[in-house]
Amino acid sequence: MEASSSSSLWGGLNSGIVLSLLAVAWTMLWQALQGLQLHHFFDRHSRRLSRRLAAILDPDLTVTIAEYNGGRMRRSDAYKEAKAYLERATREARGGGAGGGVRHLRAEPDKDPDRVLLSMDDDEEITDEFRGAVVTWRACTAPQREDTGPAYFWRGGAGQRAERRSYKLLFSERHRDLVLGEYLTHVRREGRAVMVKNRQRKLFTNISGDGSWDSDGVWSHVVFEHPKTFATLAMDPAKKKEVMDDLDAFRNGKDYYARVGKAWKRGYLLYGPPGTGKSTMIAAMANHLDYDVYDIELTSVRTNTDLRKLFIETTSKSIIVIEDIDCSLDLTGKRKRKKKKKEEEEEEGKKDGDKEKEDDSNKAGSSKVTLSGVLNFIDGLWSACGGERIIVFTTNHVEKLDPALIRRGRMDKHIEMSYCCVESFKFLAKVYLDVDDHPRFDAVAALLREVDMTPADVAENMTPKAPGENADSCLAALVEALEKAKVDAALAKKKKAKGNKEDAGAADDEDEEEEEEEEE
Ligand SMILES: Nc1ncnc2c1ncn2[C@@H]1O[C@H](COP(=O)(O)OP(=O)(O)OP(=O)(O)O)[C@@H](O)[C@H]1O
Ligand SMILES: [Mg+2]
Protein backbone atom coordinates (compact mmCIF):
# COMPACT_ATOMS: atom_id res chain seq x y z
CA MET A 1 0.00 0.00 0.00
CA GLU A 2 2.79 2.30 1.04
CA ALA A 3 4.91 1.38 -1.95
CA SER A 4 1.99 1.92 -4.24
CA SER A 5 1.07 5.22 -2.62
CA SER A 6 4.64 6.50 -2.84
CA SER A 7 4.86 5.40 -6.48
CA SER A 8 1.54 7.13 -7.29
CA LEU A 9 2.78 10.25 -5.53
CA TRP A 10 5.99 10.01 -7.55
CA GLY A 11 3.93 9.45 -10.75
CA GLY A 12 1.71 12.47 -9.96
CA LEU A 13 4.76 14.65 -9.41
CA ASN A 14 6.30 13.41 -12.66
CA SER A 15 3.22 14.18 -14.77
CA GLY A 16 3.00 17.65 -13.17
CA ILE A 17 6.60 18.32 -14.12
CA VAL A 18 6.04 17.01 -17.64
CA LEU A 19 3.00 19.25 -18.10
CA SER A 20 4.91 22.29 -16.83
CA LEU A 21 7.77 21.49 -19.17
CA LEU A 22 5.38 21.13 -22.07
CA ALA A 23 3.78 24.49 -21.28
CA VAL A 24 7.19 26.18 -21.11
CA ALA A 25 8.23 24.49 -24.35
CA TRP A 26 4.98 25.60 -26.11
CA THR A 27 5.44 29.19 -24.94
CA MET A 28 9.01 29.18 -26.18
CA LEU A 29 7.97 27.66 -29.49
CA TRP A 30 5.14 30.22 -29.92
CA GLN A 31 7.51 33.09 -29.18
CA ALA A 32 9.95 31.65 -31.68
CA LEU A 33 7.16 31.38 -34.29
CA GLN A 34 6.14 34.95 -33.61
CA GLY A 35 9.72 35.99 -34.04
CA LEU A 36 9.65 34.28 -37.42
CA GLN A 37 6.25 35.97 -38.28
CA LEU A 38 4.82 32.52 -38.84
CA HIS A 39 1.54 33.33 -37.07
CA HIS A 40 0.73 35.55 -40.08
CA PHE A 41 1.05 32.47 -42.20
CA PHE A 42 -1.39 30.55 -40.00
CA ASP A 43 -3.75 33.53 -39.80
CA ARG A 44 -3.85 33.99 -43.55
CA HIS A 45 -4.51 30.37 -44.23
CA SER A 46 -7.19 30.03 -41.60
CA ARG A 47 -8.97 33.12 -43.03
CA ARG A 48 -8.75 31.80 -46.56
CA LEU A 49 -10.09 28.50 -45.36
CA SER A 50 -13.03 30.12 -43.60
CA ARG A 51 -13.76 32.21 -46.73
CA ARG A 52 -13.83 29.06 -48.84
CA LEU A 53 -16.10 27.38 -46.37
CA ALA A 54 -18.46 30.39 -46.38
CA ALA A 55 -18.43 30.44 -50.18
CA ILE A 56 -19.56 26.83 -50.21
CA LEU A 57 -22.30 27.43 -47.67
CA ASP A 58 -23.44 30.83 -49.09
CA PRO A 59 -22.08 31.43 -52.61
CA ASP A 60 -23.53 34.95 -53.10
CA LEU A 61 -21.76 38.15 -52.18
CA THR A 62 -23.77 41.33 -51.67
CA VAL A 63 -23.21 45.03 -52.08
CA THR A 64 -25.77 47.36 -50.50
CA ILE A 65 -26.41 50.79 -51.96
CA ALA A 66 -28.40 52.73 -49.39
CA GLU A 67 -30.52 55.81 -50.11
CA TYR A 68 -28.96 57.66 -47.19
CA ASN A 69 -25.51 56.76 -45.91
CA GLY A 70 -24.62 56.97 -42.24
CA GLY A 71 -24.97 60.50 -40.94
CA ARG A 72 -25.15 62.00 -44.42
CA MET A 73 -28.10 64.22 -45.03
CA ARG A 74 -28.05 64.13 -48.81
CA ARG A 75 -29.56 61.36 -50.81
CA SER A 76 -26.71 59.23 -52.08
CA ASP A 77 -25.74 59.82 -55.71
CA ALA A 78 -24.89 56.13 -56.12
CA TYR A 79 -28.45 55.24 -55.09
CA LYS A 80 -29.98 57.68 -57.56
CA GLU A 81 -27.76 56.38 -60.35
CA ALA A 82 -28.52 52.74 -59.52
CA LYS A 83 -32.24 53.61 -59.47
CA ALA A 84 -32.04 55.19 -62.92
CA TYR A 85 -30.04 52.23 -64.23
CA LEU A 86 -32.54 49.72 -62.85
CA GLU A 87 -35.49 51.69 -64.24
CA ARG A 88 -33.96 51.28 -67.67
CA ALA A 89 -33.14 47.62 -67.00
CA THR A 90 -36.75 47.05 -65.93
CA ARG A 91 -38.00 48.70 -69.11
CA GLU A 92 -35.61 46.92 -71.41
CA ALA A 93 -35.48 43.49 -69.74
CA ARG A 94 -36.04 40.85 -72.36
CA GLY A 95 -38.07 37.71 -71.91
CA GLY A 96 -40.62 39.05 -69.49
CA GLY A 97 -42.05 41.79 -71.70
CA ALA A 98 -42.38 45.27 -70.18
CA GLY A 99 -41.11 45.10 -66.63
CA GLY A 100 -38.88 42.10 -67.35
CA GLY A 101 -40.86 39.61 -65.28
CA VAL A 102 -40.95 41.91 -62.26
CA ARG A 103 -44.41 41.39 -60.82
CA HIS A 104 -44.70 44.42 -58.56
CA LEU A 105 -43.80 47.68 -60.20
CA ARG A 106 -43.68 51.25 -59.03
CA ALA A 107 -44.86 53.90 -61.55
CA GLU A 108 -43.71 57.51 -61.72
CA PRO A 109 -44.53 60.17 -64.34
CA ASP A 110 -42.29 59.99 -67.40
CA LYS A 111 -40.96 62.85 -69.53
CA ASP A 112 -43.44 61.74 -72.15
CA PRO A 113 -46.82 62.69 -70.64
CA ASP A 114 -48.48 59.59 -72.12
CA ARG A 115 -46.12 57.15 -70.43
CA VAL A 116 -45.03 56.17 -66.96
CA LEU A 117 -41.58 55.35 -65.66
CA LEU A 118 -41.52 51.85 -64.19
CA SER A 119 -39.20 50.64 -61.50
CA MET A 120 -39.38 47.56 -59.30
CA ASP A 121 -41.34 47.85 -56.11
CA ASP A 122 -40.03 46.91 -52.67
CA ASP A 123 -38.72 43.34 -52.25
CA GLU A 124 -38.76 42.73 -56.01
CA GLU A 125 -35.76 41.36 -57.87
CA ILE A 126 -34.34 41.79 -61.32
CA THR A 127 -31.41 40.04 -62.95
CA ASP A 128 -28.79 41.68 -65.10
CA GLU A 129 -25.91 40.33 -67.13
CA PHE A 130 -22.48 41.81 -67.55
CA ARG A 131 -19.76 40.06 -69.59
CA GLY A 132 -21.10 36.62 -68.78
CA ALA A 133 -21.66 37.36 -65.09
CA VAL A 134 -25.26 37.18 -63.95
CA VAL A 135 -26.13 39.42 -61.03
CA THR A 136 -29.36 40.06 -59.13
CA TRP A 137 -30.66 43.36 -57.84
CA ARG A 138 -33.13 43.44 -54.99
CA ALA A 139 -35.09 46.50 -53.83
CA CYS A 140 -35.17 46.58 -50.03
CA THR A 141 -36.92 48.73 -47.47
CA ALA A 142 -36.51 48.82 -43.73
CA PRO A 143 -38.38 51.02 -41.28
CA GLN A 144 -36.38 54.03 -40.21
CA ARG A 145 -35.77 54.66 -36.52
CA GLU A 146 -38.36 57.18 -35.42
CA ASP A 147 -36.06 59.97 -34.37
CA THR A 148 -33.59 59.99 -37.23
CA GLY A 149 -33.33 60.36 -40.97
CA PRO A 150 -33.74 63.43 -43.10
CA ALA A 151 -37.02 62.26 -44.56
CA TYR A 152 -38.56 61.92 -41.12
CA PHE A 153 -40.07 65.39 -40.74
CA TRP A 154 -41.33 65.61 -44.26
CA ARG A 155 -43.19 62.36 -44.34
CA GLY A 156 -45.69 63.10 -41.67
CA GLY A 157 -43.52 64.00 -38.68
CA ALA A 158 -43.87 62.58 -35.20
CA GLY A 159 -45.37 59.16 -34.83
CA GLN A 160 -44.87 58.14 -38.44
CA ARG A 161 -41.97 56.05 -39.60
CA ALA A 162 -40.10 56.97 -42.73
CA GLU A 163 -38.69 54.06 -44.70
CA ARG A 164 -35.04 53.42 -45.39
CA ARG A 165 -34.56 52.20 -48.92
CA SER A 166 -31.63 50.43 -50.48
CA TYR A 167 -30.66 48.22 -53.38
CA LYS A 168 -28.85 44.94 -52.74
CA LEU A 169 -26.64 43.58 -55.47
CA LEU A 170 -26.12 39.80 -55.23
CA PHE A 171 -23.40 38.08 -57.23
CA SER A 172 -21.24 35.00 -57.17
CA GLU A 173 -17.86 34.86 -55.49
CA ARG A 174 -16.44 33.87 -58.90
CA HIS A 175 -17.28 37.32 -60.30
CA ARG A 176 -16.05 39.32 -57.34
CA ASP A 177 -13.36 41.24 -59.23
CA LEU A 178 -15.48 41.84 -62.32
CA VAL A 179 -18.49 43.12 -60.35
CA LEU A 180 -16.65 45.23 -57.80
CA GLY A 181 -14.11 46.50 -60.28
CA GLU A 182 -16.04 47.13 -63.48
CA TYR A 183 -19.73 46.38 -63.20
CA LEU A 184 -20.44 48.93 -60.45
CA THR A 185 -18.61 51.63 -62.39
CA HIS A 186 -20.67 50.67 -65.44
CA VAL A 187 -23.91 50.93 -63.44
CA ARG A 188 -23.08 54.40 -62.11
CA ARG A 189 -21.99 55.71 -65.49
CA GLU A 190 -25.02 54.33 -67.31
CA GLY A 191 -27.34 55.51 -64.53
CA ARG A 192 -25.99 59.05 -64.87
CA ALA A 193 -26.56 58.94 -68.62
CA VAL A 194 -30.16 57.79 -68.08
CA MET A 195 -30.71 60.60 -65.57
CA VAL A 196 -29.48 63.21 -68.05
CA LYS A 197 -31.68 61.75 -70.81
CA ASN A 198 -34.79 61.58 -68.64
CA ARG A 199 -34.22 64.92 -67.02
CA GLN A 200 -37.46 66.80 -66.64
CA ARG A 201 -37.48 70.13 -65.02
CA LYS A 202 -39.28 69.93 -61.71
CA LEU A 203 -41.10 72.24 -59.39
CA PHE A 204 -40.40 71.17 -55.82
CA THR A 205 -42.20 72.07 -52.63
CA ASN A 206 -41.44 71.29 -49.01
CA ILE A 207 -45.13 70.85 -48.22
CA SER A 208 -45.55 67.10 -47.72
CA GLY A 209 -47.25 65.25 -50.54
CA ASP A 210 -51.01 64.77 -50.62
CA GLY A 211 -50.88 62.21 -53.38
CA SER A 212 -50.72 64.67 -56.26
CA TRP A 213 -47.01 65.27 -55.65
CA ASP A 214 -44.23 62.76 -56.12
CA SER A 215 -42.02 62.52 -53.11
CA ASP A 216 -38.30 62.64 -53.68
CA GLY A 217 -36.46 62.74 -50.35
CA VAL A 218 -37.49 65.75 -48.29
CA TRP A 219 -39.07 67.46 -51.28
CA SER A 220 -42.23 66.69 -53.22
CA HIS A 221 -42.37 67.65 -56.86
CA VAL A 222 -44.40 67.99 -60.02
CA VAL A 223 -43.12 68.55 -63.53
CA PHE A 224 -42.36 72.22 -64.10
CA GLU A 225 -44.37 73.34 -67.10
CA HIS A 226 -44.79 77.10 -66.77
CA PRO A 227 -45.00 78.63 -70.25
CA LYS A 228 -43.76 82.13 -69.34
CA THR A 229 -40.52 83.24 -70.95
CA PHE A 230 -38.74 86.57 -71.16
CA ALA A 231 -40.22 86.86 -74.66
CA THR A 232 -43.68 87.31 -73.14
CA LEU A 233 -42.73 89.19 -69.96
CA ALA A 234 -43.62 92.89 -70.09
CA MET A 235 -40.81 94.97 -68.64
CA ASP A 236 -38.58 97.87 -69.54
CA PRO A 237 -36.48 96.39 -72.40
CA ALA A 238 -33.17 97.68 -71.03
CA LYS A 239 -33.95 96.26 -67.59
CA LYS A 240 -34.98 92.95 -69.10
CA LYS A 241 -31.75 92.69 -71.07
CA GLU A 242 -29.77 93.50 -67.94
CA VAL A 243 -31.47 90.66 -66.04
CA MET A 244 -30.97 88.19 -68.88
CA ASP A 245 -27.29 89.13 -69.22
CA ASP A 246 -26.86 88.76 -65.48
CA LEU A 247 -28.38 85.27 -65.56
CA ASP A 248 -26.18 84.24 -68.47
CA ALA A 249 -23.07 85.53 -66.72
CA PHE A 250 -24.03 83.53 -63.64
CA ARG A 251 -24.62 80.33 -65.58
CA ASN A 252 -21.27 80.60 -67.35
CA GLY A 253 -19.42 81.89 -64.31
CA LYS A 254 -18.15 78.67 -62.74
CA ASP A 255 -14.48 79.57 -63.27
CA TYR A 256 -15.01 83.16 -62.21
CA TYR A 257 -16.64 82.17 -58.91
CA ALA A 258 -13.86 79.63 -58.26
CA ARG A 259 -11.18 82.23 -59.07
CA VAL A 260 -12.51 84.89 -56.72
CA GLY A 261 -13.32 82.30 -54.03
CA LYS A 262 -17.06 82.85 -53.90
CA ALA A 263 -19.75 80.20 -53.60
CA TRP A 264 -21.41 79.72 -57.00
CA LYS A 265 -24.76 81.19 -56.06
CA ARG A 266 -26.58 84.45 -56.63
CA GLY A 267 -29.42 86.13 -54.79
CA TYR A 268 -32.22 88.06 -56.46
CA LEU A 269 -34.71 90.23 -54.65
CA LEU A 270 -37.86 90.91 -56.65
CA TYR A 271 -40.01 93.60 -55.12
CA GLY A 272 -43.07 95.54 -56.18
CA PRO A 273 -46.84 95.71 -55.76
CA PRO A 274 -49.03 92.62 -56.25
CA GLY A 275 -49.60 91.69 -59.88
CA THR A 276 -46.46 93.27 -61.29
CA GLY A 277 -44.97 89.97 -62.42
CA LYS A 278 -42.61 88.80 -59.66
CA SER A 279 -43.71 85.15 -59.74
CA THR A 280 -43.93 85.35 -63.51
CA MET A 281 -40.34 86.57 -63.63
CA ILE A 282 -39.20 83.52 -61.63
CA ALA A 283 -40.83 81.21 -64.17
CA ALA A 284 -39.14 83.13 -67.00
CA MET A 285 -35.79 82.84 -65.21
CA ALA A 286 -36.21 79.08 -64.75
CA ASN A 287 -37.13 78.62 -68.40
CA HIS A 288 -34.27 80.81 -69.55
CA LEU A 289 -31.67 78.91 -67.52
CA ASP A 290 -33.30 75.49 -67.80
CA TYR A 291 -33.15 75.11 -64.01
CA ASP A 292 -35.42 73.33 -61.51
CA VAL A 293 -37.43 75.42 -59.07
CA TYR A 294 -37.53 74.76 -55.32
CA ASP A 295 -40.38 76.74 -53.79
CA ILE A 296 -39.88 76.92 -50.02
CA GLU A 297 -42.99 77.52 -47.95
CA LEU A 298 -41.20 78.95 -44.95
CA THR A 299 -44.18 78.71 -42.62
CA SER A 300 -44.07 74.91 -43.03
CA VAL A 301 -40.41 74.70 -42.00
CA ARG A 302 -40.21 74.01 -38.31
CA THR A 303 -36.65 74.83 -37.33
CA ASN A 304 -33.46 76.30 -38.72
CA THR A 305 -32.03 72.77 -38.87
CA ASP A 306 -34.91 71.69 -41.09
CA LEU A 307 -34.29 74.67 -43.34
CA ARG A 308 -30.67 73.57 -43.67
CA LYS A 309 -31.73 70.02 -44.50
CA LEU A 310 -34.00 71.35 -47.21
CA PHE A 311 -31.18 73.38 -48.67
CA ILE A 312 -28.76 70.46 -48.65
CA GLU A 313 -31.28 68.34 -50.53
CA THR A 314 -31.58 70.81 -53.41
CA THR A 315 -29.62 69.98 -56.52
CA SER A 316 -27.39 72.31 -58.48
CA LYS A 317 -28.88 74.11 -61.50
CA SER A 318 -31.82 75.23 -59.46
CA ILE A 319 -33.68 78.33 -58.34
CA ILE A 320 -34.64 78.35 -54.68
CA VAL A 321 -37.61 80.61 -54.09
CA ILE A 322 -39.11 82.12 -50.96
CA GLU A 323 -42.18 84.12 -51.96
CA ASP A 324 -43.52 87.01 -49.89
CA ILE A 325 -40.64 86.80 -47.45
CA ASP A 326 -42.12 89.64 -45.38
CA CYS A 327 -45.32 87.65 -44.76
CA SER A 328 -43.76 84.20 -44.35
CA LEU A 329 -42.41 84.72 -40.88
CA ASP A 330 -41.58 87.44 -38.44
CA LEU A 331 -38.13 87.83 -39.91
CA THR A 332 -38.28 91.50 -40.46
CA GLY A 333 -36.83 94.22 -38.31
CA LYS A 334 -36.57 92.01 -35.20
CA ARG A 335 -33.46 93.77 -34.09
CA LYS A 336 -34.98 97.16 -34.67
CA ARG A 337 -38.04 96.13 -32.74
CA LYS A 338 -36.00 94.96 -29.78
CA LYS A 339 -34.33 98.34 -29.55
CA LYS A 340 -37.54 100.24 -29.91
CA LYS A 341 -39.74 97.94 -27.89
CA LYS A 342 -39.44 99.79 -24.62
CA GLU A 343 -39.91 103.17 -26.23
CA GLU A 344 -42.93 102.03 -28.16
CA GLU A 345 -44.61 100.52 -25.16
CA GLU A 346 -44.17 103.73 -23.26
CA GLU A 347 -45.17 106.00 -26.13
CA GLU A 348 -48.08 104.03 -27.42
CA GLY A 349 -49.24 102.98 -23.96
CA LYS A 350 -50.25 99.62 -25.30
CA LYS A 351 -53.26 98.07 -23.69
CA ASP A 352 -52.65 94.75 -21.96
CA GLY A 353 -55.23 93.05 -24.17
CA ASP A 354 -53.32 93.99 -27.32
CA LYS A 355 -50.10 92.64 -25.92
CA GLU A 356 -51.71 89.31 -25.12
CA LYS A 357 -53.10 89.09 -28.63
CA GLU A 358 -49.67 89.63 -30.13
CA ASP A 359 -48.07 87.04 -27.88
CA ASP A 360 -50.73 84.53 -28.83
CA SER A 361 -50.22 85.09 -32.51
CA ASN A 362 -46.50 84.54 -32.08
CA LYS A 363 -47.11 81.30 -30.23
CA ALA A 364 -49.62 80.13 -32.83
CA GLY A 365 -47.00 79.75 -35.57
CA SER A 366 -45.24 76.42 -34.98
CA SER A 367 -42.31 77.52 -37.12
CA LYS A 368 -39.19 78.42 -35.20
CA VAL A 369 -37.18 79.57 -38.18
CA THR A 370 -35.39 82.75 -37.26
CA LEU A 371 -33.87 85.61 -39.19
CA SER A 372 -30.39 84.32 -38.39
CA GLY A 373 -31.43 80.88 -39.65
CA VAL A 374 -32.43 82.39 -42.98
CA LEU A 375 -29.29 84.52 -43.14
CA ASN A 376 -27.19 81.41 -42.62
CA PHE A 377 -29.19 79.52 -45.21
CA ILE A 378 -28.40 82.16 -47.83
CA ASP A 379 -24.89 83.09 -46.95
CA GLY A 380 -23.48 80.72 -44.33
CA LEU A 381 -21.00 77.91 -44.76
CA TRP A 382 -23.72 75.54 -45.87
CA SER A 383 -24.83 77.80 -48.68
CA ALA A 384 -21.79 76.77 -50.72
CA CYS A 385 -22.83 73.09 -50.88
CA GLY A 386 -23.36 71.91 -54.43
CA GLY A 387 -23.04 75.24 -56.24
CA GLU A 388 -24.93 76.76 -59.19
CA ARG A 389 -27.97 77.89 -57.29
CA ILE A 390 -30.01 81.04 -57.54
CA ILE A 391 -31.94 82.19 -54.50
CA VAL A 392 -34.94 84.45 -55.12
CA PHE A 393 -36.96 86.34 -52.53
CA THR A 394 -40.10 88.22 -53.47
CA THR A 395 -41.84 90.87 -51.43
CA ASN A 396 -44.48 93.56 -51.76
CA HIS A 397 -42.85 95.62 -49.01
CA VAL A 398 -39.12 95.90 -49.47
CA GLU A 399 -38.95 98.65 -46.82
CA LYS A 400 -40.10 96.15 -44.17
CA LEU A 401 -37.19 93.77 -44.67
CA ASP A 402 -34.21 93.67 -42.34
CA PRO A 403 -31.22 95.29 -44.14
CA ALA A 404 -29.06 92.26 -43.25
CA LEU A 405 -31.37 90.04 -45.26
CA ILE A 406 -31.10 91.99 -48.47
CA ARG A 407 -27.55 93.28 -48.38
CA ARG A 408 -25.39 92.60 -51.42
CA GLY A 409 -23.78 89.17 -51.11
CA ARG A 410 -27.08 87.80 -49.91
CA MET A 411 -29.44 89.43 -52.36
CA ASP A 412 -26.97 90.51 -55.02
CA LYS A 413 -29.46 91.94 -57.46
CA HIS A 414 -32.52 93.97 -56.51
CA ILE A 415 -35.13 94.14 -59.25
CA GLU A 416 -38.10 96.42 -58.93
CA MET A 417 -41.22 95.21 -60.69
CA SER A 418 -43.36 98.26 -61.22
CA TYR A 419 -46.74 99.34 -62.53
CA CYS A 420 -47.39 99.10 -66.23
CA CYS A 421 -45.63 101.80 -68.24
CA VAL A 422 -46.44 102.78 -71.84
CA GLU A 423 -43.66 100.55 -73.19
CA SER A 424 -44.93 97.55 -71.24
CA PHE A 425 -48.49 98.24 -72.40
CA LYS A 426 -47.42 98.23 -76.06
CA PHE A 427 -45.51 95.02 -75.45
CA LEU A 428 -48.56 93.37 -73.88
CA ALA A 429 -50.83 94.62 -76.70
CA LYS A 430 -48.54 92.86 -79.17
CA VAL A 431 -48.45 89.65 -77.10
CA TYR A 432 -52.15 89.53 -76.21
CA LEU A 433 -53.84 91.16 -79.22
CA ASP A 434 -51.12 90.96 -81.86
CA VAL A 435 -51.40 94.70 -82.65
CA ASP A 436 -48.45 97.06 -83.12
CA ASP A 437 -50.53 100.20 -83.30
CA HIS A 438 -54.14 101.25 -82.76
CA PRO A 439 -56.10 104.54 -82.57
CA ARG A 440 -56.78 103.91 -78.84
CA PHE A 441 -53.08 103.62 -77.98
CA ASP A 442 -52.77 107.37 -77.30
CA ALA A 443 -55.72 107.39 -74.89
CA VAL A 444 -54.31 104.38 -73.02
CA ALA A 445 -50.82 105.91 -72.91
CA ALA A 446 -52.17 109.24 -71.54
CA LEU A 447 -54.15 107.43 -68.84
CA LEU A 448 -51.23 105.17 -67.87
CA ARG A 449 -49.13 108.28 -67.19
CA GLU A 450 -51.77 109.49 -64.73
CA VAL A 451 -52.88 106.30 -63.04
CA ASP A 452 -51.13 103.17 -61.70
CA MET A 453 -52.28 99.87 -63.13
CA THR A 454 -50.43 96.56 -62.77
CA PRO A 455 -49.40 94.54 -65.82
CA ALA A 456 -51.71 91.81 -64.44
CA ASP A 457 -54.73 94.15 -64.73
CA VAL A 458 -53.70 95.49 -68.14
CA ALA A 459 -53.21 91.93 -69.40
CA GLU A 460 -56.56 90.85 -68.00
CA ASN A 461 -58.37 93.72 -69.76
CA MET A 462 -56.71 92.81 -73.02
CA THR A 463 -57.70 89.15 -72.85
CA PRO A 464 -60.66 88.44 -75.19
CA LYS A 465 -63.35 86.81 -73.08
CA ALA A 466 -65.99 85.97 -75.68
CA PRO A 467 -65.82 84.74 -79.28
CA GLY A 468 -66.78 88.14 -80.81
CA GLU A 469 -64.20 90.19 -78.92
CA ASN A 470 -61.27 91.73 -80.78
CA ALA A 471 -58.47 94.24 -80.30
CA ASP A 472 -60.86 97.17 -80.60
CA SER A 473 -63.29 95.97 -77.92
CA CYS A 474 -60.47 94.88 -75.61
CA LEU A 475 -58.69 98.25 -75.84
CA ALA A 476 -62.03 100.04 -75.26
CA ALA A 477 -62.46 97.93 -72.11
CA LEU A 478 -58.94 98.85 -71.03
CA VAL A 479 -59.60 102.59 -71.50
CA GLU A 480 -62.79 102.26 -69.47
CA ALA A 481 -60.96 100.39 -66.69
CA LEU A 482 -58.20 103.00 -66.61
CA GLU A 483 -60.73 105.83 -66.39
CA LYS A 484 -62.49 104.10 -63.53
CA ALA A 485 -59.15 103.54 -61.79
CA LYS A 486 -58.40 107.25 -62.22
CA VAL A 487 -61.70 108.26 -60.57
CA ASP A 488 -61.13 105.74 -57.75
CA ALA A 489 -57.61 107.04 -57.19
CA ALA A 490 -58.87 110.64 -57.01
CA LEU A 491 -61.53 109.65 -54.48
CA ALA A 492 -59.03 107.71 -52.38
CA LYS A 493 -56.65 110.70 -52.40
CA LYS A 494 -59.43 113.02 -51.27
CA LYS A 495 -60.43 110.64 -48.49
CA LYS A 496 -56.85 110.32 -47.32
CA ALA A 497 -56.38 114.08 -47.26
CA LYS A 498 -59.54 114.43 -45.21
CA GLY A 499 -58.35 111.72 -42.81
CA ASN A 500 -54.97 113.43 -42.40
CA LYS A 501 -56.69 116.74 -41.69
CA GLU A 502 -58.84 115.15 -38.98
CA ASP A 503 -55.80 113.44 -37.46
CA ALA A 504 -53.94 116.74 -37.45
CA GLY A 505 -56.95 118.42 -35.74
CA ALA A 506 -57.09 115.68 -33.10
CA ALA A 507 -53.35 116.01 -32.53
CA ASP A 508 -53.71 119.79 -32.10
CA ASP A 509 -56.47 119.25 -29.53
CA GLU A 510 -54.26 116.76 -27.67
CA ASP A 511 -51.35 119.21 -27.72
CA GLU A 512 -53.58 121.97 -26.35
CA GLU A 513 -54.82 119.67 -23.58
CA GLU A 514 -51.25 118.71 -22.70
CA GLU A 515 -50.20 122.34 -22.59
CA GLU A 516 -53.14 123.16 -20.32
CA GLU A 517 -52.19 120.26 -18.03
CA GLU A 518 -48.59 121.46 -17.91
CA GLU A 519 -49.72 125.01 -17.09
CA GLU A 520 -51.94 123.70 -14.29
N1 LIG B 1 -44.73 92.02 -66.39
C1 LIG B 1 -45.64 91.14 -66.79
N2 LIG B 1 -45.62 90.66 -68.04
C2 LIG B 1 -46.53 89.79 -68.45
N3 LIG B 1 -47.54 89.33 -67.69
C3 LIG B 1 -47.60 89.76 -66.44
C4 LIG B 1 -46.65 90.69 -65.91
N4 LIG B 1 -46.95 90.94 -64.66
C5 LIG B 1 -48.02 90.22 -64.36
N5 LIG B 1 -48.41 89.50 -65.43
C6 LIG B 1 -49.56 88.60 -65.47
O1 LIG B 1 -50.30 88.84 -64.29
C7 LIG B 1 -50.50 87.67 -63.54
C8 LIG B 1 -50.04 87.87 -62.11
O2 LIG B 1 -48.66 88.11 -62.06
P1 LIG B 1 -47.71 87.56 -60.91
O3 LIG B 1 -48.34 86.42 -60.22
O4 LIG B 1 -46.36 87.32 -61.50
O5 LIG B 1 -47.66 88.78 -59.93
P2 LIG B 1 -46.81 88.95 -58.60
O6 LIG B 1 -46.00 90.18 -58.75
O7 LIG B 1 -46.11 87.71 -58.29
O8 LIG B 1 -47.97 89.20 -57.54
P3 LIG B 1 -47.96 88.91 -55.97
O9 LIG B 1 -47.11 89.96 -55.33
O10 LIG B 1 -49.37 89.05 -55.58
O11 LIG B 1 -47.43 87.53 -55.79
C9 LIG B 1 -49.74 86.57 -64.22
O12 LIG B 1 -50.65 85.59 -64.65
C10 LIG B 1 -49.06 87.18 -65.42
O13 LIG B 1 -49.42 86.51 -66.60
MG1 LIG C 1 -46.32 86.27 -56.76
UniProtKB/TrEMBL annotation:
Reactions that this protein is recorded to catalyse: ATP + H2O = ADP + phosphate + H(+)
Q: Name one GO biological process term.
A: response to stress
By its UniProt entry, which Gene3D superfamilies does this protein fall under?
A: 6.10.280.40, P-loop containing nucleotide triphosphate hydrolases
Biased segments, Basic and acidic residues type:
348-362
Which domain of life does this protein belong to? Answer: Eukaryota
Give a yes or no for keyword Cytoplasm in this entry: no
Q: Which residue ranges have biased composition labelled Acidic residues?
A: 505-520
Q: Which InterPro entries does the record match to this protein?
A: AAA+_ATPase, AAA_N_dom, At3g28540-like_C, ATPase_AAA_core, ATPase_AAA_CS, Mitochondrial_chaperone_BCS1, P-loop_NTPase
Q: Which cofactor does it need?
A: Mg(2+)
- Name the SMART domains on file: AAA
Region annotated Disordered sits at: 336-367, 492-520
Q: Domain AAA+ ATPase, which positions?
A: 264-421
- Gene Ontology MF annotations: ATP binding; ATP hydrolysis activity
User: Where do transmembrane segments lie in this chain?
Assistant: 12-33
Q: Which UniProt keywords apply?
A: ATP-binding, Magnesium, Membrane, Nucleotide-binding, Transmembrane, Transmembrane helix
One protein family per Pfam: AAA_lid_At3g28540
What family does this belong to? Answer: Belongs to the AAA ATPase family. BCS1 subfamily.
Specify the protein name: AAA+ ATPase domain-containing protein
The organism encoding this protein is Sorghum bicolor
Question: Upper lineage ranks?
Answer: Eukaryota, Viridiplantae, Streptophyta, Embryophyta, Tracheophyta
